[in-house]
Design goal:
This protein is α+β, with helices and mostly antiparallel strands. It has 3 helices and 4 strands.
């Protein structure tokens, strides 16, 4: 059984570079650690709006064990001009399939 979490937010202009750095650090650590049970993506949909989608298998969220993700999440509200809005989603399709 999987669950999907979608997060949307718009960063302040002065926070864009920091947010990009923090997001990229998450992917660097994910690549190094390779946690199982996680499909994760981040998209920038305009200059300062980001959408993160996590498809999580099992009860535990592997992102909680990623130090770079904790650093990213710690200050996200202060970097935002709008959001973050956290929504539960339903996975309709994904390639490759989880």
């Amino acid at each position: 059984m999987s669950r999907t979490v979608v997060v949307r937010y718009r960063v302040k202009p002065e926070s864009l570079d920091e947010n990009l750095r923090l997001v990229r650090a998450v992917y660097t650590e994910l690549a190094a650690t390779g946690p199982e049970g996680l499909r994760y993506s981040t998209s920038r949909v305009d200059d300062r709006t980001f959408v993160h989608v996590a498809v999580i298998e099992g009860a535990d969220n592997p992102l909680d064990k990623i130090e770079a993700f904790r650093s990213f999440a710690e200050g996200v509200a202060e970097r935002c001009e709008d959001g973050p809005l956290v929504m539960a989603g339903e996975l309709v399709g994904m390639y490759p399939a989880p």
